Amino acid sequence: MKNSNGIPQLFLRIALGLGFILPVMDRIGLMGLPGSGKVAWGDWEHFINYTNTLIPFASRSVANIFGLTATIAEVIIGICLIAGLKIKLAALGAALITVTFAVFMIFASGIGAPFQYPVFVFTGGALLLSTLDNFKWSLDNYINKPN
Based on the number of CB atoms within 10 Å of its own CB, is 30 exposed (0-12), middle (13-18) or buried (19 or more)? Predict the structure, then answer.
């Protein structure tokens, strides 16, 4: 069956992609200053403080490693989703990273924490995206197009 949902999957890709890119921009200070009310963190220091609250059993240096690893993954996933490159793999990565985040949020802050943010919506959207077979307006579509 051919996927005729070009606009919805494009919208989902862009929304998920930006959902990964914008928080990275926040944590490196490109969205505003810490405490400005327009950002969650505003700089790397505040982001690592938050990361350390999610993994309180880890030292600060381990939290830095987790934060850096997540940040790199989020940049790659976000770019791939927006550009439409390796979409199925990027979507599965997005689902894995968001469900992992949700589990850490639950243990650190309670069952309601991931529901205060659209963490499970991101996971569900990413899983749904990973099931599609045709991605109109994507690099994948262009690369895999028969001559």
Answer: exposed
